[in-house]
Amino acid sequence: MLRHDMAAVDDVRKWVDRIVVGLDLCPFAQDPLVHGRVRFEESRATSLEGIMIELVEEMALLSDPDAEADTTLLIVPTLLGDFDTFLDAIALAEEVIEQTGKTGIFQLAHFHPNYRFEGTESDDPGNRTNQSPHPILHILRWSDVRRAMHDNPGVGLIPERNLALLRGLPTLPSLEGPLDTDFRRAICTDKFWDRHTQRIFEAHGEAIEDCVLQNREEVIGLMEFIEKNQIRSYLEIGVWTGRLTGLLHREFSFNRVAAADEGYAETKGLTINLPADVEFFRGDSASAEFEAWREKLGHIDLVFIDGNHTYPGVCRDFAINRRYPHRFLAFHDITGSNRWTSGVKKFWDGLDEGHKWEIIRPHAELGLEHSTMGIGIWSGTVEAEDAP
Asked: Domain 183-379 maps to which CATH number in 3.30.1490.20, 3.40.50.150, 3.10.450.120, 3.10.290.10?
């Protein structure tokens, strides 16, 4: 007996919200979802022919000039469980689109719990881009697809980015339990170290650009850590142009926020922009003046160290900041992926006291399945609510 209790629809809604949109696998999915322009329709068909009839009906609905939806996800929870059978159904659906004169008007995307791209192993994490809770025929208007491609010239890089992300992440967000804070959506308009930044870095040996000079995925991990551990005060040492400090304070409204920097970005023609309520020390974080300022600052929940990347420099920053009241000390670039950051890796690998957590995620915006940076978090006591 077919079930029509909306359970399958709920499953797919969660998948779209937490995986497709949550991981930004499709940057075009968020807008119609937010504005309620996506139809989630559970198939009631008892045969393959019945599914094709439903496909034609959905195309007719979407063709209406007054249609309330832009796209339909036709969910088939009781049929097409076998992936080869599903592929046969997709081939038939393409024929139906052609026979009904809808070629060039509608495009079909498809998803399946056991989806496997041609030429990949069944356990390749990259297959998860198309692995949904139930078989789905996704009906799209070609006009919307063309508009999205025109408005997003980097659309061709999306598959590479998604493969890098999914192959690098150990697990996907859970579809069970309450919905986590959508940090990815919160920072979607912030520019991070991406391919453009990387080209600048490779050309000049420095990333001379006004952006967040971190890996987006790892900053999301840092934000998850901040939320879970109720971080209410934050100090960043080495702020570049202040983008990360501003982003975190915008999202968490810290009770107290501070920053320290010598102003190196300004020597490259850039400007340091920090929120008005940031307590700012301009100078060397290894100086006596900094220590006096830090002492007056008092207790800080999280100190993020991203200044001097040499081994002696990181050791000094650690030795100084551990002396003052804090909960956690964090370090950027613990993977030491280039000679400028190898000192951080040496320090982090040799840090054999206290308790350590690592946020190491694929640098997907570079199309890489591994991290080029990494964030390490240290505490002298066991108090973190959850490891990243």
From this structure: 3.40.50.150
